[in-house]
Prior knowledge:
This protein has 424 residues and is mostly beta strands. It is 12% helix and 41% strand.
Amino acid sequence: MKLGRLAAVGALLLESGALASAQQNLKVGMILESWYTQMLDNNLRLDPAPSVAPYYANGAMNSAFKENQFYVRHTELCLNGKVGDQVIWGVVFDPNTSSNTTPAGTNNLLDAWIAYAFNKQFSVKMGQFKMPMNYESTIIGAQKLLFYDRSMTARMWAEKRDRGALATYSIGDPDGLAAKFNLGVGNGMTDSSLTYKANDTNAQKDYSFSANATYGADHSFGAWYRQGETDVRDVGLVSGTFTGVNAPDAAAVLDNKDKTTNIGAYYVFDNAQWQGAVEVTTGLLGRRYPSVFPAGTAPTVAVQRQHLDQKYLGYTLSGAYKMGRHWFTARFDYLNFNQGDDWYTATDPYTTNTTTGAPTGNDFSPKYYEAIVGYNYLFTPAKYVDGKVKFDYIHRSKNFLAPRATQTGEQGGDSLVMSVMIGF
Length: 424
């Protein structure tokens, strides 16, 4: 027994030399963020009912806002390094993810990838990561966010990881005009009802392309496109049912296979005193509100979206005025889940009883906005990412919660959020 222990100690000592050498290429990072949320309207206590407001209920409103509470938002640990001059790797995990993410039990591994750099311009990586779409989700890290959280569009879709491969080609002068072009292929499991970090269940893949550029130190801009189909096994697929006399038949629904797209663009101006950004995203809802289901599903299951080719539109306008360690911020964030008002029923399904055509007295049109004014206090004035305290007043549209039995009209509420964050 003693010899075994001595051998183990000896092995550790030998490994420590290798570890010390490896640490020369190892970088460790961390993001720790905690919130306090205060409801300013008791109506915010009512959770949105999926049968009444399925779009908002599926993630546009962060679960932290259901009650007044202290909330741990991020506990991310980041590791990355190099093996030689050409192999690069990265791992990010958040021990708190499984308690803040639905469905319960989602694993806390966020990113895990290995990349090979053929030269300074061209590289290919494979593993689990965010496919490039949305400025806030894939161009900057959480420690650089001006507000309590990312935009609604980012929270709904761009924050989800996928497993796949991504090729990147860089050109230009970093002091002048420089650009990166990305071409990716992934499993397309980002909208799975089980977990969005999973191996594939069918033969379909998602394909994406993005271009991100900078002009000097002050200007950043880019665009992206992504396309995919259903994420369920495509053997014995069952067609869901759309409501309305003009609704597509089962063959048309199965042929569509829940085609899903994202197309968007952004521009950011950022200097020592001012920051301003605009981002626009649109695309087909597709599998995010599926119309095809796995074998064995009841053929009469209703589809939550109102049209086979239903599109969404989201845009965000934001800015900041910087005064040393004091930053003053504002953002308008908009997301419409049915841009174009497409449905098969004879009357508006969001404001009327589609059987009788009579107005319901409520308006659950899936058009939501958040208007935010905020203040950031930086721990280190010269380095925004080191840490900060953020105060945000969030004013929301009022059409996402069902009225109580004695109430009519839209319900909702505003919030005040304090965020404390550190990072390195």
